[in-house]
Design a protein that fits this description.
The protein is 62% helix and 7% strand. By secondary structure, it is mainly alpha-helical.
């Protein structure tokens, strides 16, 4: 592999360019992918740089994002078995509050297990 360099003042910086992602893999990151990227960048710098330079960062982030979304739905379904919501047609506000609480509970589990580990 031949590297070319660009002079910036007294320094020679390598001209690095990541390959373009194949079609279909260029989907944007959602909340969980962005949170994972921020965590890796701030707290796991070596892992972040290794993934970035090996072009595995975005596939890793998309995998964490997909797994987080799947696990949130599964956890919410499990919680709803033990804590069923009130009837939506009778008390819509209580139903919305109940569902938001369950989603936040599931997100807390996901953040601890997937995003911040």
């Amino acid at each position: 592999m031949n590297l070319t360099y660009t002079r910036r003042g007294d320094y020679l910086l390598p001209d690095l360019k990541l390959d373009e992602p194949p079609p279909g893999l260029a989907e944007p990151l959602t909340k969980y992918g962005i949170m994972r990227r921020s965590f890796l960048k701030e707290h796991r710098t070596i892992t972040y740089n290794r993934l970035l330079l090996s072009e595995q960062l975005f596939p890793h982030l998309r995998e964490v994002q997909r797994e987080a979304e799947e696990r949130i739905e599964a956890i919410m379904a499990d919680i709803l078995v033990f804590r069923p919501p009130p009837d939506k047609s009778v008390d819509g506000i209580s139903w919305a509050g109940h569902m938001n609480t369950i989603k936040h509970m599931a997100e807390e589990i996901i953040l601890a297990e997937l995003i911040y580990s």
